[in-house]
């Protein structure tokens, strides 16, 4: 396999860290990109400098729900073109509509995907299981508090599986749009799996999007918390039709792990701290 130099946005964050680790394990040279490394999505010059000499870029846009999302995507796309990037892989972090719809958070992903580079891959995971083990997790209190009904199957996906899809897209030079839904499980089953993994009973608790925003606020700030809550209000008003994984199965051998496997493999320091 040909090894490559790959610039990874958010390489130390919850979605980007598994990507960086998996690419490194596959023998690639990972160039981590973050503000700590002097790279700013609102500074096109810093992006061009960071991308220059790389073969591929893994773009994960931040949780921005206003016009800044479009600016960040525009900068990344133009910088990839200027730097001569061969392959732009976009982790959309969510399923996307087929066309822009006037929602900056979603339209920004379309804007980045329109970059004039030889290969563009758009990966569209569903809801991350890591949302249940993040810093705002309530597992330690014996509940999983989340703004979804506990009896409705949801295709939860693990960040590690998305990382595998990223690496395969790079290795196979696979361009195109790929839905990455996880294994369907209702919230009550996920809570039971987490409880089994940590050795304590855990129950699912459905909360409102506003209550979820209050959990997120200390960790993500007001803008991201309110924007995320708005997404879950949309889910409540019109439950999404989860996308077809067939293209990803055929091209990327997409075979996500189930919630029980994820819960068993996850470290639960917050939950286990007495």
Would you summarize the structure shown here?
With 274 residues, this protein is of the alpha/beta class. It has ten helices and ten strands.
List keywords for this structure.
274 residues, alpha/beta, Rossmann fold, six-stranded parallel sheet, 10 strands
What name does CATH use for the topology?
Answer: Rossmann fold
Order of helices and strands: EHEHEHEHEEEHEEHEHHHH
Tell me which CATH architecture applies here.
3-Layer(aba) Sandwich
Strand order of the largest sheet: 2-1-3-4-5-8
What is the number of E strands? 10
**What share of the residues does DSSP label as strand, in percent?**
15-25%
Distance between the termini: 47 Å
Q: What is the helix content?
A: 40-55%
CATH superfamily: NAD(P)-binding Rossmann-like Domain
**What would you call the shape?**
globular
Number of domains: 1
Main beta-sheet strand count, sense and barrel state: 6 strands, parallel
CATH class: Alpha Beta
Unreliable sequence segments: none
Radius of gyration: 18 Å
**Helix run count:** 10
Report the structural category. Answer: alpha/beta
Average pLDDT reading: 94
């Amino acid at each position: 396999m040909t090894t490559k130099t790959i610039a990874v946005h958010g390489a130390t964050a919850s979605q980007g860290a598994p990507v960086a680790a998996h690419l490194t394990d596959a023998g690639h040279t990972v160039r981590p990109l973050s503000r700590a490394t002097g790279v700013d999505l609102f500074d096109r010059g810093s992006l061009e400098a960071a991308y220059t000499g790389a073969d591929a870029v893994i773009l994960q846009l931040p949780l921005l729900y206003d016009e800044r999302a479009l600016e960040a995507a525009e900068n990344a796309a133009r910088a990839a073109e200027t730097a001569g990037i061969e392959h732009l892989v976009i982790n959309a972090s969510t399923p996307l509509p087929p066309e822009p719809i006037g929602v900056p958070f979603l339209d920004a992903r379309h804007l980045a995907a329109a970059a004039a580079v030889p290969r563009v891959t758009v990966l569209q995971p569903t809801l991350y299981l890591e949302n249940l083990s993040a810093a705002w997790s309530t597992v330690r209190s014996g509940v999983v508090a989340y703004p979804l009904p506990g009896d409705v199957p949801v295709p939860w996906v693990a960040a590690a599986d998305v990382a595998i899809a990223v690496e395969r897209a790079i290795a196979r030079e696979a361009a195109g749009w790929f839905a990455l839904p996880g294994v369907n499980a209702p919230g009550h089953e996920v809570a039971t799996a987490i409880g089994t993994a940590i050795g304590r009973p855990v129950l699912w608790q459905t909360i409102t999007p506003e209550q979820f925003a209050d959990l997120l606020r200390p960790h993500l700030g007001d803008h991201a918390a309110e924007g995320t809550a708005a997404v879950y209000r949309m889910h409540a008003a019109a439950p999404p039709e989860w996308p077809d994984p067939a293209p990803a199965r055929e091209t990327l051998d997409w075979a996500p792990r189930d919630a029980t496997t994820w819960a068993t493999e996850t470290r639960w320091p917050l939950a286990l701290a007495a």
